[in-house]
């Protein structure tokens, strides 16, 4: 969770160390503090001078205020428990301060991207969509690993603590089923990310040659894999439940889940609709070319 406070906590610690080094250091810390908080305002002024400002740039003023407040508290962390919470919490308010600042910054960046994409040409929109798909794939994969691996490790630890008197073979089999359950839980996410990666590949070929053979092959591959991934999601859940039932005599803990992959069904239906629209457009283009 400490990554949430990066880099604001580190900047605050650096400014505090500089301020405590003496009078010149204190002056330098104040100059750096005021300059850091004024960076969003400088960006706002620059955008207005270049006439590239949009209606969402007021978030830069809010970001400047948030940076001043957050950095002040990170420079003086003892004041967090005094002003930001009814009871001392050991600096947990720092996560809230950093989250507000990060949210303002990310919101401004994303809104600027959306506005720029609305003004962009057709190829620019395709490139922007591919970038967002890649970004989503990376963040979703990282979130799955960061959330799933600690959960699996904690489950293994609790299993050993609660069944310390059990034999080693039972613990081994139970841990193997925990690992298998973790893999089965990852199947829907992995399938979705694989389909999105294929969709990004289709957009890559579509941008270069809309109705070329590589574009058509990429779409056909995407359409075929979408159905296979959906079958894999459903069959993996059924297979795990059946295997768990057959081996229930040697498992110290069981997990029963009924999966209805609504998100994946929507994505796959959208992909299939996209394929039908593309094939219909390709057929109309070929018919028009015949009359030219």
Describe this structure in words.
This protein starts with 7 loop residues before the first helix and ends with a helix. It contains 9 helices and no strands. 81% of the residues lie in helices and 0% in strands.
Instruction: State Rg.
Output: 27 Å
Query: How would the global form be characterised?
Result: flat
**Helicity range:** over 70%
Instruction: Give the rounded overall mean pLDDT.
Output: 83
Termini separation comes to 62 Å
* Uncertain parts: none
Short synopsis of the structure:
By secondary structure, the protein is mainly alpha-helical.
What attributes does this structure have?
292 residues, mainly alpha, 9 helices, 81% helix, flat
Task: Provide the fold topology.
Elements: H1 8-19, H2 23-49, H3 58-75, H4 78-83, H5 93-119, H6 122-162, H7 168-208, H8 213-246, H9 262-291
Helix pairs in contact: 1-2, 1-3, 2-3, 3-5, 6-7, 7-8, 7-9, 8-9
